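Same chain as my last thread, 323 residues:
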Amino acid sequence: MHSFIKFVAKNYLLPTLLVLIIVGLVSSKKYMLSESQLEKSYEEDLNNFAWIHKIPQAEGYIFGSSSLRYGLSASALSDSNSQWLNLSKDARDPIVFYLLLKKYYPYKHPKKIIVGLDPWIFSKGYYYYRNQIMFLDLDASTTWAMRQKDASVYFTKFKQVVYSRFSETASPTLGIIDKIPGDFGSIKLTKSAANFRKIDEDWFDVKRYGWAELEFEYLGKIKQFCNTHNIELIFVIPPKRNDYTRTAKKLFAEEHRIWWQKINQVIGGEKIIGTFSDLSAYPQDSIFAESCHLNERGQQVYSHWLKEHIDKLERITTERNFY
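reply #2:
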């Protein structure tokens, strides 16, 4: 009888239990990263833009990471009849672009939105700079690799996300920022240009951690939302310093090819402006603070350049050269 119980446990109960545990973990992860849970996790970040309610009418929203936060002047894009708002932030990603659009569209009904396409914001490696809940999107091997990179930081963040998800007292007080910021969200970089001669081969972290499929999924949600609400969707590839472009073309050609293939699968046929090299004719140290960030003068140059080109859009094609 004892041997029979061991046989059943070994061949039926344990495998069944293992399957149930795996299914439970997968289901839990899917729920935790659902749109409704992401909205809760990013609520404080979304409330930082409550000042939008004070704007009489918005012509358009700018969604980007640091390259557009510092690279585009909302005032320079605007005129007497229209006002652009810059909702970009360092390391911001398509997930938050979508959540912001969904939250604030009902109040201002922008006619256009600009979405910046920087490859690295689609990288799992950039989860390091985001809300802790994004760590749940990492598989075991990737989580281990990241912890090896900075074990104490990642372990602390992992504990925070687990605790905040299961503790009713862990939620912070949500601040609501309703004061309209200078230049409607755009920020000027005034520091001097930094020399830039080399990119580490793991600069994207894509070679180690891969692309975040969830980001491409939310890029598709942005497209669907704009189509549903008749919003003109404008994708831009922010300019980079010439030395960055040359080095990236050499080191990251394959990563860029895969990234562009994924982008095209999600938003193929949509309109796009720009390449990394759009401001290559300007003295680079006069317009760039560093490899991917324009300085104050560069912001004005690029804002006026984009305003002139915003009605001269090209369709995304599979073979588009964005260098």
